[in-house]
Amino acid sequence: MKLFFGEINNGKAIINDEEQQHIVKVLRMKDGEKIHVTDGKGNVASGTLVIEGKKANIEVSEIKKDTQDFNPKLHIAIAPTKNIDRIEFFVEKAVEMGIAEITILQTEKTERKNISIEKLRKQAIAASKQSLRFHFPVVNDLIKLPDFLKNINPEKTFVAHCHENLERIELNHIPALEQITFLIGPEGDFSEREIQFLSDSNVKAVSLGNQRLRTETAGVFVAAWNYFNMMR
């Protein structure tokens, strides 16, 4: 399946401008090839490619609406790593495994303050197309931890931290939920004050095993755990 991003309205599909350039200049596709276009909201149009100069269009033969999305819906709020390549790796892999939402957290120990959220969003779209997802995940703007905690449901929110002296539950003890949010701390973990703040907000702590995992590894681990639960 050759899947591209675009808009779908009133029985018609319009391929995104950047996607059109990619089709014509990079992929050098030809008239009549079978393609699919999704709006990233669960709708997908199927049809044949029509090339007109530097423009690429789709002659729609079928539109499927409201295709099934992954369940449970996983939201990971993660602190950015100093080496941005590592957080980009997390985004790509988490999207492939069906994550619904990603938030970039600013914590007390966050070293990287400038994040190109638009670049991460483009990577999320690319990973969605690569893995044939018709529902693209939401990638939120950078937000400070206290502000993020103002809008959570503590019954569905968990935090992974490395403080072994504090009570932590095992992943397999988390009840089945339709929506679940995980917080992953920065390199060096959350500060003592932040962990107390999380506890005061009734966010339950979770252990990811005996090994100390890097930030992006912890994020991928949680995404893989959720993906496994989807397949059960």
Structure description:
This protein is α/β, with parallel strands linked by helices. It is 29% helix and 29% strand. It contains 6 helices and 13 strands. It has helices spanning 17-26, 84-96, 117-130, 145-149, 192-200, 215-231, and strands at residues 3-9, 12-15, 34-38, 44-52, 55-64, 73-78, 101-106, 138-139, 143-144, 157-160, 169-170, 179-184, 204-207. The strands form 2 sheets. Strands 6, 7, 8, 9, 10, 11, 12 and 13 form an 8-stranded parallel sheet that branches. The radius of gyration is 20 Å and the shape is elongated. The model has no long low-confidence stretch (mean pLDDT 93).
Summarize the structure.
It is built from 6 helices and 13 strands.
Task: Chart the SSEs and their pairings.
Blueprint: E1 3-9, E2 12-15, H1 17-26, E3 34-38, E4 44-52, E5 55-64, E6 73-78, H2 84-96, E7 101-106, H3 117-130, E8 138-139, E9 143-144, H4 145-149, E10 157-160, E11 169-170, E12 179-184, H5 192-200, E13 204-207, H6 215-231
Parallel strand pairs: 1-3, 6-7, 6-12, 7-8, 7-9, 10-12, 10-13, 11-13
Antiparallel strand pairs: 1-2, 3-4, 4-5
